[in-house]
Every structure is written in structure tokens, then in C-alpha cells.
Amino acid sequence: MNDSYVDKVLIVEGKSDKNKVKKIVKEPVEIICTNGTISITKLDELIEFLEDKDVYILVDADFSGEKLRKQLKRELPQAEHLYIDRMYREVATAPVHHLATVLLGANIDVHTEFLEMG
Which strand ranges, in their side-by-side order, compose the sheet holding 80-82? Predict the structure, then answer.
């Protein structure tokens, strides 16, 4: 995790999700990649780190994404869940303008050129 203080944290599944979201987001946001699963030990560390932060969860609209979302809902009840349209299935394959709109809807500042791409 980062040394500099960031008050918003976005949890995604894969590295390709992280890379795509990173280029859209304009403000400092810590993006944590779970690689699809998360161990209890890692989750405990995460909960401690996330204690005083705004937490957002953006996972794929598929079986593994929903399974991870349920786990995170239990462990991080204060987190805000962001959803991509089911027709895109994966964060990594969703159009950038769609992701930018979803992020902006959660008050995460995005580069405006991504909003104009739709």
C-alpha cells in the first residue's frame, strides 16, 4: 500500500482492471487488486488499512466477481459497491466512458475526455 495518504480506496479483481481504472481516475485513489480471491490474512490486513478511508468495490459482473463482492460485503459493510452494466461482464472490457460514468457517480474525479468518448 502507499506511503502517501490517500482517503479513497478502490478494490478491483485483476491487474487489467486496475490498469484500466488507473488511467481514467484523476484524483489520488489507492487501487487494490485482489487477483480474484482474497485470503483471510490479507483481508484482515486490508480491513485495518481501510479503517478510516472511503472504500469502493468494482468487480466483474460474473460469477467470480459476485462471489468476491459477497465476501467483501460481509467483511467491509461500509464499502460502496460500484456496478458495471451486466452486458459488459468484465471491468477490463467495459468501455472507458462507461467506467468513467460509474466512477463519477461515486464522486471519484475522472479525466473528462473519458466521459466524452461515449
Answer: 30-33, 8-12, 54-58, 80-82
- Return the C-alpha cell found at 44: 484482515
pTM of the model: 0.91
CB-based burial label for 104 (10 Å; 0-12, 13-18, 19+): middle
Chain position carrying cell 472504500: 55
Which has the closest alpha carbon to 56: 8, 94, 92? 8
Report residue 39: phi and psi, to 5°: -75, 160
Q: DSSP letters of 84-97?
A: --GGG-SGGGS-HH
**Cα–Cα distances in angstroms (integers) from residue 60 to residues 16, 65, 76, 118, in the given order:** 12, 5, 18, 20
Round to whole Å and give the CA distance between 98 and 50. 26
pLDDT value, residue 51: 86
pLDDT, mean of residues 67-80: 93
Query: Residue 1: is its pLDDT beyond 60?
Result: no
Contacts of 96 (CB under 8 A, 6+ apart): 20, 23, 24, 114, 117
